[in-house]
Write a structure and sequence with these properties.
- By secondary structure, the chain is mainly α.
- It has one domain.
- 65% of the residues lie in helices and 0% in strands.
- It is globular.
- The N terminus is likely disordered.
Length: 139
């Protein structure tokens, strides 16, 4: 039974990460098609998004989960925006924060306070996109 729980947790982990990577690719495509952003900002947004996704993947590797822990890995029903850069940024950042809280484990964390710093990085990413893409300004 523990083997099944470990497999179910690992499967949920990789499925969710692949979904987040797909939404990250969609975010990068929306940023590249946005006419309000200059080339430097487009590169900055894409680099930050890729770095956040890679860090989430690295911190969730080599985790040992049990059947009791697999109940925490239920998939959230989160609606991601497909055509709004601002809304997709908020959705992706929230999903990455949730992923960092649920799927990272002590064995694979690169540094001591990784989760807290990662959450701060996602908030910084959201603020950069909101400022540069004029989100929430009624434009």
């Amino acid at each position: 039974m523990k083997v099944f729980g470990l497999f179910a947790a690992a499967l949920a982990n990789t499925e969710r990460l692949e979904k987040l990577k797909g939404h990250g690719d969609n975010l990068i495509a929306l940023a590249n098609n946005n006419t309000d952003l200059n080339d430097f900002t487009k590169n900055r947004i894409s680099n930050l998004a890729l770095k956040l996704l890679d860090q989430a993947e690295g911190a969730s590797m080599n985790c040992n989960a049990t059947v009791e822990d697999s109940r925490l890995f239920d998939e959230e029903n989160r609606g991601f925006s497909a055509d709004d850069l601002c809304q997709l940024t908020n959705d992706l950042a929230g999903a990455l924060r949730s992923y960092a809280r649920r799927f990272t484990c002590e064995e694979s964390l690169p540094k001591k306070l990784f989760v807290d710093k990662y959450i701060n990085r996602t908030k910084k990413f959201t603020k950069i996109v909101e400022r540069k893409a004029f989100c929430g300004l009624g434009m």
